[in-house]
């Protein structure tokens, strides 16, 4: 009947419109991923030059330099690494949205990783804050993605130090009671988070008062 034909045509048009919407969203996601990939590449290129030149100056490739100058160059180099880490965060955010983030399965020497990240955080911030690292004696090598673990530690330690004007930032490495899992705990003596804000910390773009 005419009514049935109209209903079928309407359903067909609706299906076509839905498919066009899906195609447009998928294309937008692809364009966004390409943009982030191109942007991070363009940002990494000059940063790698800064890091490489700083490293060459520190190692004496261009002649010997005073210790105080090498210290300043070391800070520039570490700051470059930190900025590279932030750029990686941007790219990862895009990858997570598109479900295309890849992880590496490898041996991770956690003590060395933790010490490296803590040293980097301390050198970059240059604040009157004591950094404490405590590790249990029997922490084993674990399997995981070294780069991602460094990235998480950078963010946790950086955030802890950012809101700690004086006092300490701590990093503890231990085993849980079952001895089946490694525990990493970051602590600080900073302003903390108000109780009513705790439920919001996993949301996007939320930040408590800095006191």
What does this structure look like?
The chain contains four helices and five strands, in the order ααβαββαββ. It has helices at residues 2-58, 67-97, 110-125, 146-162, and strands at 106-108, 129-135, 142-144, 167-175, 182-188. β4 and β5 (182-188) form a beta hairpin. The protein has two domains: 7-97, Orthogonal Bundle (Helix Hairpins); 106-200, Heat Shock Protein 90 (2-Layer Sandwich). It starts with a helix and ends in a 23-residue tail after the last strand. The protein has 211 residues and is α+β, with helices and mostly antiparallel strands. It has a three-stranded mixed beta sheet, with helices on one face. Strands 1-3 form a two-stranded antiparallel ribbon. α1 (2-58) packs antiparallel against α2 (67-97). The mean pLDDT is 82. 57% of the residues lie in helices and 14% in strands. The protein is extended. This is histidine kinase. One of its GO terms (cellular component) is plasma membrane. Its EC number is 2.7.13.3. It is an enzyme of class 2 (transferase). InterPro entries: HATPase_C_sf, HATPase_dom, His_kinase_dom, HisK_dim/P_dom, HisK_dim/P_sf.
Index terms:
211 residues, alpha+beta, Helix Hairpins, Heat Shock Protein 90, 2 domains, 3-stranded mixed β-sheet, 5 strands
Largest sheet: 3 strands, mixed
> In terms of quaternary structure, what is this?
single chain
Residues in helix, %: 55-70%
- Low-pLDDT segments: none
Q: Write the H/E string, N to C.
A: HHEHEEHEE
Brief characterization of the structure:
Residues 38-211 form the Histidine kinase domain. This protein is α+β, with helices and mostly antiparallel strands and 211 residues long.
């Amino acid at each position: 009947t005419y009514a049935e034909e109209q209903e079928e045509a309407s359903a067909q048009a609706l299906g076509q419109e839905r498919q066009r919407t899906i195609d447009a969203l998928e294309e937008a996601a692809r364009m966004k991923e390409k943009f982030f990939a191109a942007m991070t590449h363009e940002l990494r290129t000059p940063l790698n030059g800064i890091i490489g030149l700083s490293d060459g100056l520190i190692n004496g490739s261009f002649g010997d330099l005073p210790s105080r100058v090498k210290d300043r160059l070391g800070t520039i180099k570490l700051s470059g690494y930190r900025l590279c880490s932030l750029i990686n965060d941007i790219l990862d955010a895009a990858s997570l949205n598109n479900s295309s983030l890849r992880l590496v399965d490898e041996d991770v020497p956690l003590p060395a990783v933790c010490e490296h990240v803590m040293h980097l955080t301390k050198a970059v911030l240059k604040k009157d804050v004591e950094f404490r690292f405590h590790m249990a004696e029997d922490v084993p090598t674990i399997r995981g993605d070294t780069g991602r673990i460094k990235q998480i530690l950078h963010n946790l330690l950086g955030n802890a130090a950012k809101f700690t004007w004086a006092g300490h930032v701590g990093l503890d490495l231990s085993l849980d009671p079952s001895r089946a899992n490694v525990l990493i705990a970051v602590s600080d003596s900073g302003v903390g988070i108000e109780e009513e804000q705790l439920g919001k910390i996993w949301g996007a773009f939320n930040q408590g008062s800095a006191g």
